[in-house]
Amino acid sequence: MIKHDYDIESAGSAMALTSLFDNLGELHLPVLLPASVLALVANGDPIKFTAYLISNSIYNLYFHPLRKFPGPKLSAISIIPYIRMFLSGHSHREIRELHQKYGPIVRIGPNDLSLNHPDAMKDLRGHRQTGTGENSKDDVLAKYNADNMLGANRQDHRRFRRALAHGFSNQSMMDQQPIITDYVNKFIRVMHEECYDGTKPLDIAKWFNFTTFDIIGDLSFGEGFGCLDAKDYHPWVNLILEVANDLAFQSCLGRIPGFNRLARLAASKGSTDKLTEHGNMSKNKLRKRLALGKDRSDFVDSMMRRTESSGSEITFEELASNSRLLVFAGSETTATSLSATIFYLTTNPESLKKLVDEVRSSFKSEDDIVMVSVQRLSYLQAVLNESLRLFPPIINGTQRVIRDEGDTIVGHYVPGGASVDVWQWAVHHNPEHFTQPDNFIPERWLDDPRFENDAKRALQPFSIGPRDCIGKK
Description:
- The protein has 473 residues and is mainly alpha-helical.
- The protein has a domain at 139-328: CATH 1.10.630.10.
- The protein is 55% helix and 5% strand.
- It has helices at residues 11-24, 37-42, 46-62, 73-77, 80-88, 91-102, 120-125, 139-144, 154-165, 170-194, 204-221, 227-230, 235-253, 260-266, 269-291, 299-310, 316-330, 332-346, 349-362, 371-374, 378-390, 424-428; strands at 105-109, 112-115, 136-137, 400-401, 407-409, 412-414, 419-422.
- Strands 1-2-7-4-3 form a 5-stranded mixed β-sheet.
- Strand 1 (105-109) and strand 2 (112-115) form a beta hairpin.
- The longest helix has 25 residues, at 170-194.
- The protein is globular.
- The termini are far apart.
């Protein structure tokens, strides 16, 4: 344990150390994060290594540009508590507890802040004035996603988004409806078969996953994964699910100064081989789709047409990477949201009855239920909003690195280089933002006077700004 009441050998050393820290405090945050930490250990120099730990702890606590923000002292000293929390599976609840104790901005790592405020998402990710820099994606995330919309730089992101925009237009969604309807009908038919008309329990989350992977796979690669037919996950899906934990662990290691190389070495050969196989499988699927040509209402057709009309070429590798991303982003998240909605409706029978009454009174037959017509169902929209609030499929956003000149976030200046995030689950479950935050009450979205003071603007499940979810419609 590092003590704060240690002795420094001489006054001269203390003055020199203080002077150094004072100067470093004006520089960018990564300054005192040397990549030579492992070298000190490898060279067997415990004195230098101990000196590094002590000096780095002093700097992080008392001289770091984020020193003014409240939070646990150990989190200010080391990134390890954040990593432990992130990998625990209970991070969203721990983050909420930290904000309950320390307020709307909490320092959860030496260079990391968590925000819990209704306007945090807008301030952090919103559109910027022309000529100002954006708060960029986290380096660890961008490194492995530079060739798709998730981690691309500003220029490439615009290029990818323009290419995909038509595929998510109202007209394209109407054109894609027959594809989606076929899978929904198959899902309903299989449900009747598997549950014996309601007499056998089913894992609804699994079946929603089968359906959404089939739908988004078809729209992204020109064919579904056959999950509903096989009643099991396709190898393409299994591969990514099998390495998910390894990827999370490697990502965390990559956030420790000097451990980037170790993060790569930590990747098991099995995980590396599976990722390679997954990439090759995606490219083969894309080649089959490209062989079909255009004139098919899907995302690949949109990217191909936009590329031809603008003259802004998208490479095969970029096309494959963005197609993979669309499947990741659109399948399990949608299935998670649908599963949560079913749970909340079945545990709140009054809400279920209101929704059933609205649907049955609005349509004469199931053929009338189409994308345009369901948008008129106000209670359905309220149910979905409330499910997304209580159980957001992504409990935190992708971390943003504050632009070089710094930024003002929810009324506080945050220095350039700081890593900042908004944990949506914690924001949505904050009683300062929502009345009865832990209860499922769709009426809060229908101008019920009981909830007139709710900070409804805090609900941003698809993010906000130039990098919001392109599929939010």
